[in-house]
Structure to design on (739 residues):
């Protein structure tokens, strides 16, 4: 009798706490989705001005998108920015992935005399705030007559990739050495071991690395801004959209700006959601203790 | 099998010079001679070629670049009377900035050359030793194939390391050197020259005029980093637990909702947040139309409110990442302990406090410290949300929410005090280094490394 009662009260308290959990989750979801919903709604808003004292627009329109996409020669050539970013991101993704994987593999699987010193130096170099050297890089690029070019951005992003090998190295460390050893007994050289054994096993890591190095240029703001300066036609979307909001025209451009944000966020979000298991695998395999 | 092969006692370079044949001796002066003598054409020509190119460069540019490093230029740009024309003519002066940059690049090139020179000597010694042992020198083809085997690491790493040398190390040395010059808004090349001043910039920041800005900014940076890391971590773990608890349906859907905010580029979400929190923005407008407040809340224009806003917006951005990672950990936690605790009558809070949380904390400590360092350097959130503002008249070139990094940015871009910016950069490095050392000594990949 006593036990039954206890069981019943346990069950009802469970139900109450479960309801509480749902309410909490719903409230949090609303808070988290609110800015995103707001920006999507704003991008379809027909009434002008940056700020209106309500959230749901009174009338909807596609004009904001049309204005944004048709302004190919004006002060905000969005399509051009988009293609610039796509180009920079694709090339630096390929280069950075090669560089990161090569560094990580060499430092994880191969044994050579400079290995430990390189690991330590990389550790120290990573501790400097990334853009502390930004202005020096700017002057180096200027000396090479490369500033305000897309090539300069690609160079900077890919050259920086060589130090971001720690997560990939953590992954390679987990692949058993016995595989390499047995291949070596069978007469494989290190190149063959790398391409025929380790790389096929490292698909999650390669996907993670390339995902991160593809998204880097999309998200990067500060390097692109310093290197591109006022060369509007070579802007990436990040600085392009930001520049739309700092001009005196910010108020009238606001809805086109939100339309641009939506157009940028959607492909990246989809890519990210598809790839998120690699993202988790990347973070955990790189830093978590086994 | 993977251990380095142990060679017997090597011949020293001195012995090599004494005992080696003429071509080996010549290697000490003309790089690659020994290789050429042994028909290693590719290697020999490579050594010879680099030496010729290096000497050519050294005579043409290198020596001047190196010699001007000590003064950073003496010739000021200005009008000089041209006697032939009888009118003053603008004469181009030295540019301290370029002198410093090229000087450092020249030093790096020299070091690179010394390394190559030693490699050349080692190669000559290797040939000598092979000959002593009566073995044949490896042919060019054998050398090339060793790049895919014994020296595979060289194949993989040469290009990345050159990138690091010229795009990370060179700029860093350059920036560090600037901390010891008076390169500020009064000494902007090419109009003016700057010169070495020793430690006076450090004294200025730590003890002089800049201290009144530095220490408040430093303490806000630390407070921010602690709160930002702690809130994201704690609430991220709670959210993960909430989604993962038994009985909650549509787990994937809930997770996706939060992951979406992680995927939206920061420059988008932060600019949106800035608009949402604007004095005339929708949040204030909504609150006012509901009658909850009479005047707009100064989310971004009041120092205290701005700080609170930054922390909350950072939670919005950072919490989903912690949620994702801790989900992975929670799903791998052993069920039996929690079950046992529940049978013993522990409530949900006790289980969380004594079992789940400590385990998650243990696994995530390294990542947590990395996040902490990341927050010390969290440029995006501050720059895109408040721009460092609201402006603070007590500070030099910094606002109330400026972190050390954003202050560094202002010092370079707005006030052009490159020397102070470099000092701040070095101090940030010291700060990060201390915490990184704690973090990395705890991570797996370093311990095994």
């Amino acid at each position: 009798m006593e036990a039954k009662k206890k069981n019943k009260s346990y069950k009802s308290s469970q139900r109450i706490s479960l309801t509480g959990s749902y309410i909490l989750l719903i409230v949090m979801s609303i808070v988290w989705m609110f800015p995103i919903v707001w920006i999507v709604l704003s991008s379809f808003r027909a009434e002008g001005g940056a700020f209106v004292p309500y959230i749901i627009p009174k009338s909807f329109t596609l004009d904001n998108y049309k204005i944004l996409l048709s302004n190919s020669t004006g002060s905000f050539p969005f399509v051009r920015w988009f293609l610039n970013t796509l180009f920079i991101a694709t090339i630096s993704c390929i280069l950075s992935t090669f560089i990161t994987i090569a560094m990580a593999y060499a430092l994880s699987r191969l044994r050579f005399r400079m290995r430990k010193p390189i690991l330590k130096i990389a550790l120290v170099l990573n501790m400097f705030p990334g853009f502390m050297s930004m202005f020096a890089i700017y002057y180096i690029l200027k000396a090479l007559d490369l500033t305000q070019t897309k090539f300069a951005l690609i160079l900077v992003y890919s050259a920086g990739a060589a130090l971001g090998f720690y997560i990939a190295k953590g992954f390679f460390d987990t692949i058993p050495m016995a595989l390499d050893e047995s291949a070596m007994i069978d007469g494989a050289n290190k190149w063959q071991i790398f391409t025929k054994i380790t790389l096929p096993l490292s698909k999650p890591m390669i996907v993670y690395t390339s995902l991160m190095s593809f998204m880097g240029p999309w998200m990067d703001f500060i390097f692109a801004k310093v290197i591109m300066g006022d060369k509007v036609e070579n802007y990436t979307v990040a600085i392009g959209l930001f520049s739309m909001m700092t001009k005196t025209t910010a108020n009238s451009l606001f809805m086109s700006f939100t339309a641009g944000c939506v157009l940028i966020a959607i492909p990246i979000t989809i890519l990210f959601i598809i790839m998120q298991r690699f993202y988790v695998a990347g973070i955990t395999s790189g830093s978590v203790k086994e | 099998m993977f251990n380095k092969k142990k060679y017997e006692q090597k011949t020293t370079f001195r012995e090599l010079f004494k005992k080696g044949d003429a071509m080996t001796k010549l290697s000490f002066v003309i790089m690659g001679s020994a290789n050429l003598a042994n028909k290693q054409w590719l290697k020999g020509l490579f050594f010879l070629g680099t030496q010729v190119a290096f000497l050519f460069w050294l005579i043409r540019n290198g020596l001047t670049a190196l010699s001007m490093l000590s003064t950073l230029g003496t010739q000021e740009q200005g009008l000089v009377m041209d006697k032939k024309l009888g009118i003053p003519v603008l004469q181009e002066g030295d540019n301290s900035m370029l002198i410093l940059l090229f000087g450092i690049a020249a030093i790096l090139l020299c070091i690179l050359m010394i390394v190559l020179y030693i490699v050349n000597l080692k190669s000559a010694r290797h040939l000598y030793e092979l000959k002593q042992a009566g073995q044949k020198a490896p042919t060019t083809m054998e050398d090339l194939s060793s790049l895919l085997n014994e020296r595979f690491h060289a194949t993989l790493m040469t290009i990345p390391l050159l990138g690091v040398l010229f795009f990370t190390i060179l700029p860093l040395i350059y920036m560090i050197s600037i901390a010891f010059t008076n390169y500020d808004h009064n000494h902007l090349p090419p109009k003016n020259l700057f010169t070495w001043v020793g430690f006076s910039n450090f004294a200025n920041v730590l003890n002089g005029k800049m201290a009144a800005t530095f220490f408040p900014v430093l303490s806000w940076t630390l407070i921010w980093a602690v709160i930002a890391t702690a809130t994201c971590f704690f609430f991220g773990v709670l959210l993960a637990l909430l989604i993962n608890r038994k009985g909650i349906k549509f787990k994937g859907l809930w997770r996706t909702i939060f992951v979406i905010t992680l995927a939206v580029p920061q420059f988008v979400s932060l600019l949106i947040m800035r608009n949402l929190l604007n004095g005339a923005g929708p949040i204030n407008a909504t609150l006012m139309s509901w009658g909850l407040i009479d005047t707009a809340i100064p989310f971004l224009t009041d120092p205290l409110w701005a700080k609170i806003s930054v922390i909350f917006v950072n939670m919005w951005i950072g919490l989903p990442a912690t949620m994702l990672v801790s989900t992975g950990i929670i799903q791998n936690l052993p069920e039996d302990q929690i079950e046992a605790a529940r049978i013993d009558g522990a409530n949900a809070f006790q289980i969380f406090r004594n079992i789940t949380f400590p385990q998650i904390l243990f696994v995530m400590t390294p990542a947590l410290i990395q996040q902490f360092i990341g927050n010390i350097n969290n440029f995006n959130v501050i720059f895109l949300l408040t721009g460092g503002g609201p402006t603070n008249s007590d500070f030099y070139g910094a606002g109330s929410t400026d972190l050390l990094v954003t202050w560094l940015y202002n010092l370079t871009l707005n006030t052009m005090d490159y020397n102070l910016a470099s000092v701040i950069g070095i101090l940030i490095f010291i700060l990060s280094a201390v915490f990184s050392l704690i973090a990395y000594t705890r991570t797996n990949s370093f311990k095994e490394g």
About this structure: Residues 13-197 of chain B form one domain. Residues 96-132 of chain B form the longest helix (37 residues). The two ends of chain B are 17 Å apart (CA to CA). The CA atoms of residues 304 and 400 of chain B lie 9 Å apart.
